[in-house]
């Protein structure tokens, strides 16, 4: 791999598409996410490949990110996409309040259960707006973004997208602990 990493950037919106069926929070969160990525690209100093683009031509969809600067972008994405309650990256579903604050499924259900036990209305921990299964919606864009963020294999220490890490660790990793390897290890310890 070269010292530059190639990534796709761009958002396409059909001229006839509407936001019908999406909550105001979902649309607002999507707009904020796009604006945030653009701001991060400027901060990181993403430069387009080749000569300066002609203003009359449509923008290119591929940009080059220097390897040393991609880590900083990934760290910032971790902080933007984390759950506002537990501050971890969600492992499954991501819910958002009407103002777009993100919660992992575990925290969302926990907030609803706690409020039900107290016989109170559940509220978002960030903005205190009411939350419920009817008022909140899943944020599929964040779920997909989180699944593509790199994470480290605990056995071989290589980086993989979060969506493929479990398969790698269970089936593909040469350094994973298996029954046979644990037996060999214990036998070796006995002989030494």
UniProtKB/TrEMBL annotation:
InterPro entries: Sina-like_RING, ZFTRAF1, Znf_RING, Znf_RING/FYVE/PHD. Its main location: cytoplasm. Keywords: Cytoplasm, Metal-binding, Zinc, Zinc-finger. Residues 1-22, 42-68 are annotated as: Disordered. Residues 83-128 form the RING-type domain. It is found in: Cytoplasm. Residues 44-68 have a biased composition (Basic and acidic residues). SUPFAM superfamilies: RING/U-box. Residues 10-22 have a biased composition (Low complexity). Pfam families: Sina_RING. Belongs to the ZFTRAF1 family. PANTHER family: CYSTEINE AND HISTIDINE-RICH PROTEIN 1, ZINC FINGER TRAF-TYPE-CONTAINING PROTEIN 1. This is Cysteine and histidine-rich protein 1. It comes from Ilyodon furcidens.
């Amino acid at each position: 791999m070269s010292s530059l990493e190639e990534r796709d950037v761009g958002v396409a919106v059909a001229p006839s598409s509407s936001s019908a069926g999406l909550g105001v929070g979902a649309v607002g969160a999507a707009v904020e996410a796009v604006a945030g990525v653009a701001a991060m690209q400027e901060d990181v100093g993403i430069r387009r490949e080749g000569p300066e683009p002609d203003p009359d031509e449509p923008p290119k969809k591929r940009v080059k990110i220097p390897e040393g600067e991609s880590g900083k972008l990934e760290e910032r994405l971790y902080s933007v996409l984390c759950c506002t309650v537990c501050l971890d990256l969600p492992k499954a579903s991501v819910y958002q309040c009407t103002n777009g604050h993100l919660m992992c499924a575990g925290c969302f259900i926990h907030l609803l259960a706690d409020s039900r036990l107290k016989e109170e209305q559940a509220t978002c921990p960030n903005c205190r707006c009411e939350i419920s299964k009817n008022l909140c919606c899943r944020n599929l864009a964040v779920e997909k973004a989180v699944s593509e963020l790199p994470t480290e294999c605990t056995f071989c220490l290589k980086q993989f997208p979060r969506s493929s890490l479990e398969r790698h660790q269970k089936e593909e990793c040469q350094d994973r602990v298996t029954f046979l390897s644990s037996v060999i290890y214990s036998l070796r310890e006995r002989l030494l």
